Amino acid sequence: MGKYIKDRKPQDDSWTPYTGLEEIDNLPAGDIYIPFEEWQANKEQLLKRNHRLGVILENTDDVNEISADLERLDLIVLQFPKMADGRAFSQARLLRERLGYTGEIRATGDVLQDQVFYMQRCGFNAFEMRDDQDLATTLAAFDEMTVTYQPAADEELPIWRR
Amino acid sequence: MYQYSQADHQLLQERVSQFRDQVQRRLSGDLSEDEFKQQRLRNGLYLQLHAYMLRVAVPYGLLSSNQMRTLAHIARKYDRGYGHFSTRQNIQYNWPKLEDVPQILEDLAEVEMHAIQTSGNCIRNTTSDPLAGVARDEIEDPRPYCELIRQWSTFHPEFNFLPRKFKIAVSGATHDRAAVAVHDIGVRLVKNVKGELGLEIYVGGGLGRTPMIGKLIRKFLPPHDMLTYLEAILRVYNRLGRRDNLYKARIKILVHETGEEKFRELVEEEWEQIKENGLRLSDTDINNIKSHFKDPSYETLSDFDSDFDAQLLADPEFAQWADKNIELHKQDGYRVVYLSLKSRNQPSGDVTADQMDAIADLADKYSLGAIRTTHRQNLVLSDVKLTDLHSLWLDLKALDLATPNYNHLTDLISCPGMDYCSLATARSIPIAQALTKRFDSYDYINDLGDISLNISGCINACGHHHVANIGILGVNKKGIEVYQLTLGGSAREDASIGKIIGPAFTADEIVDAVSQVLDVYLENREDPDETFLTTYRRIGQDPFKEKLYG
Amino acid sequence: MALQVYTASLLKEGLVAYLCLDSEGISWTTDLNKATAAEDSDIDTLREAAERSDRDNIVVGIYPVLVEKTASGFEPVENREKIRANGPTIILPQSSKASTNLHAA
Fold first, then answer.
1. Helix %, strand %, coil % for chain A, to 5?
2. Within 13 Å and on the Cβ side, how many CA atoms surround B304?
3. Confidence of residue A99 (pLDDT cuts 50, 70, 90)
């Protein structure tokens, strides 16, 4: 917690993670995000809350399985357990481009300055930066590269069609 | 050749600045070695046995003479006066300093070159037929498709952290000179009976510790669908490829474990969802890219030249070279010339800065300024007039680039091995040189005919030993370098993986062992036209085993 | 008793280097014969010094190498380490206008 960037600005993070270990009827107040399995198990009860809800997916989860719930979710958290594990890039693109999700997609885990450019292109708009990352240089890294060749979540056409 | 746009130039500039910053952050300690490694690898920078190694991309093997001069300049200014052309048509420098690399990249950018994605778990430089656009057996020029793949794959945001490296090769001729069967994706351009162009898509080929031939998962894909289809394959791989075991992370293992049929279904299912998106190629898209690869203005010439014929008769050495290192050209009066980087004096694929400069001059003088690199670690001058061959040969001979051995025994592929490589378990180059020295007779290799001999210094198989007619794999056995022989591999349209023949040989024994294998072939071939591979496939391993171990 | 030295690659240059530890402190040399060798029991001192250089971003990839003392100096036991210490075992291609970027060793 702490180094949180949303829509290219450092912000205070209003969300609290719910690990699944807490009692379901004794949850913290405010916006919470929930592991996908907990969400599936306790959906009805969770929806009774007067706060926003999010879900955190494993990077092995199939995003199609959450497609029916997307309207009720204001946040989807995708994970980079190691910087070299790029599965969440595909999850983000599918959420944005195929399922049309417009809420917050947040990267968590090994979220580093040198990857935010790729992440934003895939549809991430929020980043829990790893503690050792410098916010100022990370913000600059979004614009390090301005040329993009291929379509992605940020651009429908390849460079040869623009 | 593809002409860079303003955007292409800008991208290189931005990449140079980005890498300069990453190097600075590493030197100041802001980036740990583990994290910097991920970044430097994506820019072709390894830390090898003795020094850093920089791999510069040669997109689908095409070089201009000016680019070659810059490669010479880099070898001289930042390295030790030479470079190494690799089996993926790139060039590697063995001694750059980390501090110098940003400046090297800046020098490269001036001539539209870079080291982007020449390493790391991302989509690598696309390779192709070194005779693209000039081959007589060409069905369709693969270069425009390679260029489209280059653009699509460069800094692809979704596929820059794949389970493992990813190599694509494209071939557009009857004969496969790009080894498409042993790539993660191999694309072959074909035509149906109506004369329409389609793509055969092979997936899951590769060498390394689990060599496999690619599976044909799409028989006749319309060219307009190439990029959406590749995107579908890559997405399936990025989501489902194994990440728990480095040695099982290549797409070949996913295809194998999933099953070819199921894998095809997964790809087709994904492709159905994206096949109409912005990546679908229109006729205009394809034609625009094709316009970069128009034929140069060839002269109208006869395909016969009496002076050339006279030179062949007068000069037997020239005739030998012409017989081995020249190929017909689609344009009458022109020939394709192979520059052998397999002399007895330098390691396979190595070229000095002086040679590079001279090759650039020869390309300007004789070949419309164009040079190609081949996956067998040679160079090609693609557009030489028949009438110029003799003068070109004299120049090449003076440069030690005219060994008459193309596709013959001493045209051997060798990885750098333990003389340079931090992964290697045995040396390759000294064995390659011992073989070259032993079989240094034109008459002998001429008699053997078409044959391939490849050597790798470890199981990662960068020397492509699995797909050589005769393959050698160096391994470390209790501190001693020993060499295993495999027989019967092929990297061409009849691709196959060679089989290990028996227990390994020591460095002192391996040259004799190869000699015995050749003896068995010569004793058993039905006639001088029966190649080693055909004989081997006909008689099997036993006669070879008998001779080697009997 | 096995004699060992500590080796790594110099971060800036990438060249093979060996640890020297003396009264003047820690330094790295590309010449194996100038390295500080230690018996098994004293190797921890070298390892700690090498780890410090790694943390200080002087070198990359530290590890100990078994060496033997010969008449001409230290010689690594393993083949791979012999090649690292002495350079490629082949004649390198030579350009007439050779570079000045020569191996310090």
1. 35, 20, 45
2. 1
3. very high
The torsion angle over the Cα atoms of residues B107, B109, B112 and B114, rounded to 10 degrees, is: 100
Q: Which of chain A's residues have a Cβ under 8 Å away from the Cβ of B17?
A: 144
- In terms of CA atoms, which chain B residue is nearest residue A89? B158
Contacts of B178 (CB under 8 A, 6+ apart): B127, B128, B129, B142, B169, B170, B171, B186, B375
What is the nearest CA distance from B76 to chain C, expressed in angstroms?
5
pLDDT digit string, tens, across residues B25-39: 999 999 999 999 999
How far, rounded to the nearest angstrom, does the alpha carbon of residue B198 sit from its chain's CA centroid? 24
Q: Whole-angstrom Cα distance, residue A30 to residue A48?
A: 13
- Site from C12, C57, C95 to mutate, B interface, most B CB atoms within 10 angstroms: C95
Instruction: State mean pLDDT over B418-426.
Output: 97
Chains that touch B (3 or more CB pairs under 8 A): A, C
Q: Chain centroid to CA A81: how far? A: 13
The per-residue pLDDT for range B367-398, each reduced to its tens digit, is 999 999 999 999 999 999 999 999 999 999 99
Q: A145 and B14: CB-CB below 8 Å?
A: yes
ipTM field: 0.97
What's at B23, amino acid-wise? Answer: V
In sequence order, the 6+-apart residues with CB closer than 8 A to the CB of B527 are none
B399 at interface of C, judged by CB pairs closer than 8 A:
no
CB contact under 8 Å between A151 and B277, yes or no, is yes
pLDDT at B344 over 90: yes
Closest by alpha carbon to B461, among B254, B250, B259, B258? Answer: B250
> Which residue among B38, B239, B278 sits closest to A158, beta carbon to beta carbon?
B278
Q: Tell me: pLDDT of A24 over 80.
A: no
Of C14, C57, C92, the CB nearest to B47: C14
